[in-house]
């Protein structure tokens, strides 16, 4: 079952993110890795800045989370994490579909350029990687991330974005 997460879910969201993010260690640039990957303070800041989490619940326990944030004229998919032992069972696809059904805005996703599995997942779900130049522009316009993270990331766009902003 997919449901809206609330304040009571904060610690489990924190746990899921940091449990699932271990896959990035040794894959993303070393200077971008933190332990824990996302601090409680950063998670609280993300929520305060408008990231709304939806969670996938199985047998009364959250096993996956994915956030959506409406920024200016777009929706951003943020912080998509599934417990490692629950991955590859369609949970991410269901959460992504749920979030996409909750917005009529063009949707963008940022992820690490070295996270090939994440890029493949989003591409299988209808997103396309934008050009390097467009990526740099979009990350600066819609995200608040350090320059180093801009350098090491990609942006994927949905059909709504691509129809409005065709690129070569």
Protein model, in words:
The protein has a single domain (2-164), classed as Aminopeptidase (3-Layer(aba) Sandwich). The chain is 36% helix and 26% strand. The protein has helices at residues 10-20, 40-48, 91-100, 116-124, 132-142, 147-151, 159-164, and strands at residues 2-4, 52-58, 61-71, 74-82, 107-112, 128-129, 153-157. A hairpin with a 2-residue loop joins strand 3 and strand 4 (74-82). The mean pLDDT is 96.
Descriptive key words:
single chain; 168 residues; Aminopeptidase; globular
Overall radius of gyration? 15 Å
Mind describing the biggest β-sheet? 7 strands, mixed
Domain module count: 1
SS content category: alpha+beta
Distance between the termini: 40 Å
Fraction of residues in H or I helices? 25-40%
Strand content: 25-35%
Q: Please name the CATH architecture.
A: 3-Layer(aba) Sandwich
Q: Count helical runs.
A: 7
E-strand count: 7
SSE order, one letter for each helix or strand: EHHEEEHEHEHHEH
Which consecutive residue ranges, at least 5 long each, have pLDDT under 50? none
Largest beta sheet: strand ordering: 1-2-3-4-5-7-6
Q: CATH superfamily, called what?
A: Gcn5-related N-acetyltransferase (GNAT)
Quick one: CATH class? Alpha Beta
Morphology: globular
CATH-defined topology: Aminopeptidase
**Mean pLDDT score:** 96
